[in-house]
Amino acid sequence: MDGVEQVEVVVAHRERATLRVGDVFLKIDADQTRADVEVEAMAAAPVPTPEVLWRRPPVLALAALRGTALGRLGEPSPASPAAWAAAGAAARTLHDAPLPPWPRRSPDEVAADLDAECAWLVTNGVLPAQVVTRNRRVAEAALRPWTPVFAHGDLQVTHVFVDGDEVTGVLDWSEAGRGDALFDLATLTLGHPERLGDVVAGYGADVDLDVIRAWWSLRSLRAIRWLTEHGFDPRPEIAVLEGCDDTWS
């Protein structure tokens, strides 16, 4: 059938799915609270976001962004240092914006969740106990009180689109809320430590690099079970944990 757009499955698991049809992305989410946050966060964020074409729960239709993703976890990024710096500048613009109404988890809640995930990793033989212990020790630096900012909450490299050295948009705002600025920077640079200097330069403020490295360990420790149970490959996160060195902390 000539002229009929193909349907591409971008991501799909038990909680949500994203389909692409031509220049339109269709996001299907079982939890409409997440979809509510996404729409409201995109409207409030002072950075480029996808245009909302229409919404008919449980489906949200978004226009495609110009350019390509900044990179992918587990693969070298083709983006320039200036593009990574622009991503850091976009994060700073977001973090300087007025706080959104949605709360995020406290350090104590994160710590309790982290301990449960570490126990699961060891009990199920996913990682050697010494790797888990070393990363849990490094992660401790992230479990401190933080001043909340308007945080994206899931600022992965695949969620930041660039065209040349320009950020054209940021995707997937369902985890937005009042969070730790350094968690966003750590999520952006997870698996790309060589790009951290570019991001920090673009961010334009003093940041605690030890805390960013702590979030690398913490996010990876917490992600592996979810990724495994939802059919995703956790090897990039495992590689981050295996590459952790006590000199990080």
From TrEMBL:
It comes from Nonomuraea wenchangensis. Pfam families: APH. The keyword rRNA-binding does not apply. Residues 40-207 form the Aminoglycoside phosphotransferase domain. GO terms for molecular function: transferase activity. It comes from the Bacteria. SUPFAM superfamilies: Protein kinase-like (PK-like). Coiled coil: none annotated. This is Phosphotransferase enzyme family protein. The keyword Transferase applies. Keywords: Transferase.
